[in-house]
Amino acid sequence: MARSAIINVMVQAAMKAGRSLARDFGEVQNLQVSMKGPGDYVSAADRRAEQIVHQELSRARPGYGFLMEESGAIDGEDGQHRFLVDPLDGTTNFLHGIPIFAVSIGLERQGQLVAAVIFNPAMDELYTAERGGGAFLNDRRLRVAARKNLSDCVIATGIPHLGRGDHGQALVELRNVMGDVSGIRRAGSAALDLAWVAAGRYDGFWEHGLSPWDIAAGVLLVREAGGFATDQKGDHEVVDKRDIVAGNEAVHKALLKALARPA
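Request: output the structure for the sequence above.
Response:
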């Protein structure tokens, strides 16, 4: 598959950061048995990956702005373009030696998502998308799953935990959805949840409390794979919102309806 210049730049940055994370992931697995634990090491791995992404992208596109998980917003002279970067989405998985984590890079042009790369180095899976050009996994074209009835569907979500999220709301939503579906999954990486919706592995996904860098790349992947991604009110301007609902047209509509049911 021939990739555009900007996708090539983003892929190079994501894969270089991913190789760094893969090396650190092996060390984290060894640290599981130590008294100190791997927490500080993982924080350093996260920052190191972000520095790699920033350096690679800045070198190739020096005028572009950034919004990154660790470093926050960095304005660019260009003013029209912004990279949204999560250098390690799935930090808790990484911390515990679970191989479900990713480098996620989205690109906005004048506020519109135009390019996306998500790379899971542990599984050697590279997801790419460009506006109007489709979504791909390792150069294989992706389409969202075709199932239309929630009763046939596996739906992914995020579950709040200690110190995070509205636990009461989550329990209500789980109750509303779990009785309608074939299964519910919680993988621990919103970027990969959305990538797996694009790949047809999951039929749908919803979560609250997300940041722009968590979902920017995944939103474009879902849309370019023929799916829908909005906030819980159905608004398509979702990147700067805190919640997301994704799936094919029928599943997306059914999920919005199920999530809106009263307690």
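The chain is about 40% helix and 25% strand.
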